[in-house]
Amino acid sequence: MSSSSATPSVESFEAVIVGGGMVGTALCALLAQAGMRVALVEVQPAPLTLESAVRKLPNPRVSALTPVSQRLLTHLGAWPAMQKTRVTPYKGMHVWDAEGSGEIAFSADEAGVAVLGHIVENTVTLAALNNHVIGDPNVTPYFGVRLQALQRSSGSRLVLDDGRQLHSPLIVAADGARSVLREMAGIDVASDDMQQEAVVTTVQCAKPHGGIARQAFIDGRPLAFLPLTVEGSDHYCSIVWSTTPEHAAVLSELPREALGEALGKAFGHRLGEVTVCDKAHRFPLVQRHARHYVQPHFALVGDAAHSIHPLAGQGVNLGLMDAAVLAEEVVHAWQRGAPWGELSTLRRYERRRRFDNSAMLGLMKGFKVLFGSHDPALTLARNLGMSGMNQLVPLKRVLMRQATGERGRLPLSCC
Ligand SMILES: Cc1cc2nc3c(=O)[nH]c(=O)nc-3n(C[C@H](O)[C@H](O)[C@H](O)COP(=O)(O)OP(=O)(O)OC[C@H]3O[C@@H](n4cnc5c(N)ncnc54)[C@H](O)[C@@H]3O)c2cc1C
């Protein structure tokens, strides 16, 4: 329904979420599951389905999902469909410094857990979440629409480009790193251009990956080979090479054979000869952190609140925790009849999430400086540090708990 002369149609919801990516859709599922009436607004023309998410060759965008994120996706009922489609567990992680002798290895056994995580195509996670959200009577999806304005008075009101207006005590921006809605709300971000781009593609290796996620630091440029099992073969990997924009441009222009050779050589041929199976995609890497996550009747989650260097595979995991904590605070207020969109409720969410997100953003910056340095003292320190730490099982256990998401007070949906 759209008309320029007639009175605009106003629809009311208990929450409106803008951005149907993994984080926005997970938040939508959590609120709807609790009984709230939610609108989900997405610029893409139609929701991704499990049928369209399945491809022989994996989609190049993958994420390492922590066991904590897995528990959230299980709580939402999405995990079984993801498992049936394609997820690759990893039980080990090897990280080494290609400039020196430093090397560290983590294993699920040492950490006392079944797996350290799973590598999953983003399309698989999103399609499995959509499977629950689309068709839920508590969810009204608005796909293929753009935002025109955000208005404030007794709640928030979103004006869509087709004239419809959505009114709610709570509007959430989950529209990604370059969030238009965050800008409309006037929330500023601290940006840190990492002066790197990620080159991403899918490869087949001569040697099996053995369920191990590997990462080499080559002159401060992390190259990850993330294990993928495709139709029973454990010779596939998703590669993410975070490098200078100039090098990324060169790599992405190489013929596949030459790119395979470059990847194999940079990786010290640990997985043997490398055959590139897909186009090389490039993603600029900018760390951003919103100065505020909340305003009255408004909140940011996921990449709209923070975007992080992919070297530790934490981005969507942090975003899913934002969704789980925001849902916990909002549902708790809604169930006891308290104003769930007011600042007092939303600030509890911000307090619970900002520290964890800031710490992770700071850590990624520190890694980049440490591994990018040619200072001989720092090079020696990092090599000694990695190798020394490799001998210290209790310390490695602490690190593993951090990397697997077992940090701080977890929301009940992730316990
Ligand atoms: C190379 C690379 C590797 C990565 N690897 C990992 C990893 O291993 N592990 C990990 O945890 N994270 C990883 N990440 C980060 C992860 O991909 C992101 O953190 C995650 O995708 C963010 O999810 P999101 O739902 O917040 O945002 P997005 O995925 O950006 O989704 C935003 C959604 O909003 C929609 N949208 C945008 N604008 C509008 C609008 N105006 N109106 C309506 N809808 C709109 C978009 O269409 C999209 O559907 C990686 C990132 C990169 C670049």
UniProtKB/TrEMBL annotation:
GO term, biological process aspect, one: ubiquinone biosynthetic process
GO CC entries: ubiquinone biosynthesis complex
Regions that span the bilayer: 12-32
Domain of life: Bacteria
Entry keyword set: FAD, Flavoprotein, Membrane, Monooxygenase, Oxidoreductase, Transmembrane, Transmembrane helix
Pathway membership: Cofactor biosynthesis; ubiquinone biosynthesis
Domain FAD-binding stretches: 14-354
Transport is among the record's keywords: no
Family in the record: Belongs to the UbiH/COQ6 family.
Record-linked PANTHER family: UBIQUINONE BIOSYNTHESIS MONOOXYGENASE COQ6, MITOCHONDRIAL
Identification of the protein by name: 2-octaprenyl-3-methyl-6-methoxy-1,4-benzoquinol hydroxylase
Organism expressing this protein natively: Halomonas campaniensis
